[in-house]
Amino acid sequence: MGELQDIPDKPLRRGYTTGACATACTKAALWSLVTQQKITQVQVQLPIGEEVTFQVQCISITSEKATYSTIKDAGDDPDVTHNAEIIATISLDDTGTITFKRGEGVGLITLPGLEIPVGEPAINPVPRDMMRVVCQKILSDHQLEKRGVNITIAVTDGEKIAKKTLNSRLGILHGISILGTTGIVTPFSAASYIASIQQGIDVAIANGETELLINSGGRSEKMLKAIFPDITEVSCIHYGNWIHETFEKIHQSPQITKVAMGIMLGKATKLAQGRTNTHSGKTTWDKNFIYQLAKEAGYSEQVASKVLVLNMAGRLREIFTFATQEKFYQKLAEQCHYHCQKIAPHIALTIYLINTDGNYITYTL
Predict the structure, then answer these.
(1) Burial letters 200-222, b for 16+ CB under 10 A, else e
(2) What was the pLDDT predicted at 2?
(3) Is residue 96's pLDDT more than 70?
(4) What three-state secondary structure class fits 300?
(5) Nearest to 336 by CA among 196, 178, 214
(6) What is the DSSP letter of 64?
(7) CATH fit for domain 191-364, picks 2.20.25, 3.30.720, 3.40.1050, 1.10.150
(8) Cβ distance 264 to 329 under 8 Å?
(9) What angle in degrees, to the nearest 10, is found between the helix axes of 327-343 and 243-251?
(10) What is the pTM of this model?
(11) Per-residue confidence (pLDDT) for residue 10, from 0 to 100
């Protein structure tokens, strides 16, 4: 999960989750195994109640096992798993249970704090439930209720794809996660990003961390890590644009007592106004507000009014030298601190206002 992308100004096509794709392959493979027949498409009922048809490809069928694949379509969402090949291999045994196994390219849970126990494949609870349901139905239809099912999910190049995600810092190694709570990928939805924030904080807590280093993305994190060279990877959280949701989760987590927040100037001008969703598609910086802030910081009308002719927040550095002693930035950081502390009042919070060259200004109460 890298820097955030702008939302296209056009109607957006939705897609389907890795969990829905894995369920389609599981259903096709088990049906083919028990019937010894091939199919090219299969219907799956999503958790939201909608029934969707997936195109599937038979890789192999024997009397012992069957393997099917499908290509994930994420619609217009900039999902790193778009066009990934999801594969399910199914075999039967006499245990009477449904067992999930990790194929190549699916992650392995190695840290506590997630919904799935350590040592299990990174297949989330809802996709597991979806696969159980389709298996139980097929077993029932063919009078095989007493048989057990082994489900092995794999993802072609999954380990390579996972390097573009935050999986490793959550302790999910060697591949991607099989995800989805609705079965649908809504383009540019905040849901998956917010879920990763919440998971990250849960993992930090489960591993005994009481302090977090939160940043808008990889660039600001790299700068802030230079200030905290000994910070653990699990303590680092990307909040993206979702500052409110991040601090709300922190507020709900009394184990977290201290937070260092890195924020770039453009986002800081929005947060200082109380805008805790800082996406460019949702909010813009208010020049009149920043002008008033400069006046409150003690600047003359002649200096403060220069703000009103700027076309972007980054150009504030042309008026106010980016330095700790510059009162404007202390006032700006104070306002950011105030709005975050309102959401999570119990934490000790330090704001690091970061310049593009890596310099920073610190504010704390």
Answers:
(1) bbbbbbbeebebbbbbbbebbbe
(2) 44
(3) yes
(4) coil
(5) 214
(6) S
(7) 3.40.1050
(8) no
(9) 50
(10) 0.84
(11) 58
